[in-house]
Amino acid sequence: MTDEELERRLRRHYAERRAGEPEAPSFRTMLAQAERQAVRPRRLPTTGVWLIPAAAALAAVWLWWPRPVQIDALPSQEVLLAELTSGTSWQAPSDRWLPAAQPPAYLGLPRLGAGGSVLEPLELP
Amino acid sequence: MHDALENNPAVSRRALEEHHDACFAWALLLTDHDRTAAEDVLQQAYLLVVSGRARFRERSTLKTWLFGVLRNVSRRAQRRRRLDRLLALRLGADPVAEAVAPPEPADPRLQAALGSLPSRQRELLGLVFFADLSVEQAAGVLGVGVGTARTHYHRAKQTLRRLLEVDDDG
């Protein structure tokens, strides 16, 4: 088969295929639809895009949320009393700790300042 | 150009309309004569053109550029369809029915021989003999160099000749 014969056969084949094709849809309708779609606002970003700032916000809240005072770091009243009678003064583990209320005066316990410092000397009855 | 597209100033509505039939014919060839798929491809291509997401920079003729856009849209749609079918098979669902059977070819032997060619060679022959483009223009549509397109063109014809001669002898 020569090159010309093959080309002729190919042209005939494609021409026949083209002849049997359905009519093209209306150009105006298709263009109008494309123009309508083109002006439609874009969709919001997918869920994955929102996950990153949401996770960052959660982490920030968790980091900045005030921590509760660690109660078990405070000595019991007996330990405190024993330390005071032995002449040593108890220091709170952290300067962040402040006594919520001063002990009643009849107990003879010293008044505590910031950081657990003793404000008054102990006078036992 | 008073009827130029807002987001694609180098494209006029009139020029687009002139190539409409040829574009639809090319879309049909790309989708194995599935009319619905061809319309979807053409609609999607028009959306890209109108929105300016595909921009004509006048480096080729408008027809060549449009054919290239259609080819890209069609390939993307084919990939998506393949993925959908794969997903449907994995999930145990009935895969979506394949495209409608193409019309009975007048030359079934040539049709079978064309079907055995690699897709790029088949597309190239389609562009030259069906869409009446030159090999150089077809190279632009396929996004390959002119030399590469010529090689594909000659190899395709060589393969076809061999297959058809074998058939004739048999």
Main attributes of the structure:
heterodimer, A: 125 residues, mainly alpha, B: 170 residues, two-stranded antiparallel sheet, 4% strand
Low confidence ranges of chain B: none
Strand content of chain B: under 5%
Total beta strand runs of chain A:
0
Largest sheet of chain B: 2 strands, antiparallel
Would you write up a description of this structure?
The complex is a heterodimer of chains A (125) and B (170). The N and C termini of chain A lie far apart (128 Å). Chain A has 125 residues and is mostly helical. Chain A has helices spanning 3-19, 27-39, 47-64, 77-85. Chain A is rod-shaped. Chain B is globular and about 60 Å long. Chain B is mostly helical. The mean pLDDT of chain B is 87. Chain B has a two-stranded antiparallel sheet with strand order 1-2. In chain B, strand 1 and strand 2 form a beta hairpin. The N and C termini of chain B lie far apart (59 Å). Chain A binds chain B through residues 1, 3, 6-7, 9-14, 16-18, 20-22, 24-25, 27, 30-31, 33-35, 37-38, and chain B through 7, 13, 16-17, 20-21, 24-25, 28-29, 33, 35, 39, 42-43, 46-47, 49-51, 103, 105-107, 110-111, 114, 125-126, 129-130, 157, 160-161, 164-165, 168.
Secondary structure layout:
The complex is a heterodimer of chains A (125) and B (170).
Chain A: H1 3-19, H2 27-39, H3 47-64, H4 77-85
Chain B: E1 4-5, E2 8-12, H1 13-18, H2 20-30, H3 35-51, H4 62-90, H5 108-115, H6 119-130, H7 135-142, H8 146-169
Helix pairs in contact in B: 2-3, 2-4, 3-4, 4-7, 5-8, 6-7, 6-8, 7-8
